[in-house]
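sorry for the late reply, my laptop died twice this morning and i had to redo everyting from scratch. anyway the thing you sent over, i finally got around to it. pasting the sequence first so we're on the same page, its 389 residues, then the predicted structure underneath. double check i copied it right bc i was rushing
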Amino acid sequence: MKKILLSLLILLLPLLPAMAQTVQKGYYRIRNSTTNRYIFLVDYKTKGILVAETSYDVDALRTLGGFSNVVSDPSTVYYIENKGGTKYDLKSQGKGVHDFVGRYLIAKPVTDANGTHYTASGIYQGIEVFLYDSEPDPDNPDDGGYLMTGGDNNLRLWDILPVKATDNNNFFGIQPEVTVGGQRYAPFYASFPFTPVSSDMKVYTVSKVEGSKAYMAEVNGKVAGGTPVIIACPGATPSDNRINIEMQDVAKPANKLSGEYFNSSDFCGSKAYHYNALPWDANTMRVLGTTKDGRLGFVKNTKMKTIPRNKAYLVVSANAPDEITLEMQGEQLRGDLNGDNLVNGTDLVAMVNMIMEQIPQTSAADLSGDGQVNGTDLVILVGLILNAQ
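ok and here's the structure:
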């Protein structure tokens, strides 16, 4: 039995369809039908074919048990697309299997008394090599595992599970991390576009930073993939804060927040090939938290060693204050839709694109205050531009 490094192939496994013979294009989690552990991605690099070991380097793929451990983790979500026959491409954290492996995963349905599962495989020197989950620890079944190229046949069967906000067994929910004044917040960064399910769930970018203040702008409707955001959550658990992962993306809004997809420091040492983590710089980076006076803000963290994955953070100048208080975009920015502290033709173009739904609508564009972004707001903005000249 050989440990098949989990990098390229992890994306391979996920190609298993959750319906019929062909997996429909969409977002899925991949779970082993025997161990009930889910595949997640910790790195995107690969050494390719390991001739000495007659295997692929796929050590960037791991498995983890317990739905509560994956419900809020973007690295467990895969966009799967059929490429003809039993060939599939898998994408997670903005990276696709074919992008760096140069080949697609093979997924074939297998039916038993418990339903339809899938095998995941690749071709090596004309031989089909299957992916297995490792044997679970009987005393700790939810502990993490790794992929192998051999083992009990039941360990090579995988279930492809569509991620749906309405599915209580496989939804994606946001876990709040900061509470200020009774309101819960979470810093979030994912490669997929999404919309909040609850109307009480608000999503914000940071449009501008001035000294010790940063201004939040609400994103109305769909949030573009790859947009670091702050999410105001109505509830304390991921189930309270569900999102719909969307198939169609939109343009990203102006935003001062940053984010990273990978941090494998918990899974391998700093000298390992699949170590993928950027150092945290306390002088120029701030994490979402509570300021000394009890307000929501981005604060200095001197204990953090690496940038956490899938979390929004704020990059500042080396002489910036330790605490940056967050405020809602105010009247002084009225009409400034792109956060450049000006009200001009650039904002007019942004307004038109929002009305045509080419880019996400923001609360800053609702100049009339009627909860919509439409022609009325466009007329108001033209007036603001003329008055500014």
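Confidence is low (pLDDT under 50) at residues 1-20, 50-54.
thats about all i looked at so far, will dig more tmrw
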